[in-house]
Design brief:
β1 and β2 form a beta hairpin. The protein has two helices and two strands; from the N terminus they run αββα. It is mainly alpha-helical and about 110 residues long. It has a two-stranded antiparallel sheet with strand order 1-2.
Length: about 110
């Protein structure tokens, strides 16, 4: 007879990690660059990942990493501030549309 604790342990429906299971290799979603042959591994040059560097990169002043000395920037947008901002923009858009429509109507009557 199977114990209840063994049934509960086996009933998990969570995704496996690389630390669970024997010989389980999860991978990192990178495709194979070739295939296995009897003498080793043959690389297909068309499948090798290549990175194209822009030609003007040597004159760029930017660096690849951000310095840890860079001051922290905090954006203090609260939900209430966001809603008020959206309402203001919506009102501006509605006014613009009304003005545009009235200009269109005025031009059609004048011609």
């Amino acid at each position: 007879m199977v114990s209840i604790s063994a049934v509960v342990r086996g009933a998990k429906r969570l995704p496996m990690t690389s630390k669970q299971g024997h010989n389980y290799y999860k991978g990192n979603r990178s495709g194979a660059m070739g295939w296995h042959k009897k003498g080793g591994y043959e690389i297909d040059p068309l499948r090798v990942r290549t990175f194209v560097v822009p030609p003007e990169l040597d004159t760029c002043e930017l660096k690849p990493y951000v310095s840890p000395k860079t001051p922290k920037w905090r954006y203090d947008m609260t939900p209430v501030k966001y809603i008020n901002l959206v309402r203001k923009k919506d009102n501006l858009i509605q006014k613009h549309v009304k003005n545009h429509e009235s200009n269109q109507n005025g031009q059609s009557h004048q011609s």
